[in-house]
């Protein structure tokens, strides 16, 4: 019925319908704990069992989601680097370090005098030497672009990149899929199988380790084709020493796997009161039998991480 002119809502007195009052008064306390099945069914439609909120995911599911997220980020960094290099004869080194967390952790490092000289040297080698330089430009900082600073759990230190065609990919010991697995990496896989029972993979791409938080860092990041150590003592060691020092100073609980004398020399850069160092012989064919086989560094790394409350690494490739 329409309101009379001059009336207001306040003047209205609402009286509940007798039927509604009867329905309300007929409810007992058990009705609140055992609702009508039809009502419960309607409620269930809004919380379908097909949908899982983040809190209901298992630890393994969460880990897989996180791994895929960082793998996608790594590939995005790689794609941007490739686009920068495409059609260019040379791209400045500082433009190829894309991972923001490392740029923040190493402020101004590539603007220091030694790094400027290093950049000039690498440019001359790529543009004027007439010899191929490995890895390709877009992969020079692949280790840092694949493993964000805040994700670093372990560090495996290598020397200079592989110097054969198509081998180097900017990750220590790693080679792209389709490339013959080098002897050192074959021995790493053998030890991994003996240590953790991991099956030996069909290729030598260690990208899965990198995105989980294993920094695969060579001490020298470029090399001439078929000329091992040709870019040593040109400035790269100062840069990678800065990376190691930064991890030591700004992080805690990182496990450093130092294989061979060259890698073990870097132990002086690491604060052993904050971090863990595992030493063994180099996995090369010449020395693997003199202390690399049987070192069990992969299981020991996981034990140390778990003792610190950090998720272990999935070493299976």
Automatic annotation (TrEMBL):
Pfam families: UDG (PF03167). Keywords: DNA damage, DNA repair, Hydrolase, Mitochondrion, Nucleus. It is an enzyme of class 3 (hydrolase). GO terms for cellular component: mitochondrion; nucleus. GO terms for biological process: base-excision repair, AP site formation via deaminated base removal. SUPFAM superfamilies: Uracil-DNA glycosylase-like (SSF52141). The active site is at 160 (proton acceptor). GO terms for molecular function: uracil DNA N-glycosylase activity. It is found in: Mitochondrion; Nucleus. It catalyses: Hydrolyzes single-stranded DNA or mismatched double-stranded DNA and polynucleotides, releasing free uracil. Its EC number is 3.2.2.27. Residues 145-305 form the Uracil-DNA glycosylase-like domain. Belongs to the uracil-DNA glycosylase (UDG) superfamily. UNG family. PANTHER family: URACIL-DNA GLYCOSYLASE (PTHR11264). Excises uracil residues from the DNA which can arise as a result of misincorporation of dUMP residues by DNA polymerase or due to deamination of cytosine. This is Uracil-DNA glycosylase. The lineage of its organism: Eukaryota, Viridiplantae, Streptophyta, Embryophyta, Tracheophyta.
